[in-house]
Design brief:
- It contains 5 helices and no strands.
- Helix 3 crosses helix 4 and helix 4 crosses helix 5.
- The radius of gyration is 13 Å and the shape is globular.
């Protein structure tokens, strides 16, 4: 998926969050993988920047879709926190 230059730069600045992706492929990760990695492993600054780049409502929609299945890659505390956070801030 082609990303805006700002998103590509954000991915490169936070490359350590995507340890499972080959270095030359990191700038091409999906928005879904970006959201999951930043919410699971990012810090307050990276999460805030993600919301600025993509929009909190879009991040919330992606998150809701990711946790709606039988299996989720989110840590239990992270999942619970963002369920509460998005319920309050993204409705």
């Amino acid at each position: 998926m082609a990303h805006h230059p700002e998103i590509k730069q954000f991915i490169l600045e936070n490359a350590a969050l995507f340890w499972w992706v080959a270095p030359d492929e990191k700038k091409n990760i999906s928005i879904n993988a970006l959201v999951e990695a930043v919410l699971n492993y990012g810090n307050e600054k990276s999460i805030k920047k993600l919301f600025e780049l993509i929009g909190i409502k879009k991040v919330a929609a992606i998150f809701d879709k990711q946790i709606s299945g039988k299996r989720s890659n989110y840590h239990l505390r992270t999942k619970h926190f963002f369920q509460l956070y998005f319920k309050k801030h993204a409705q």
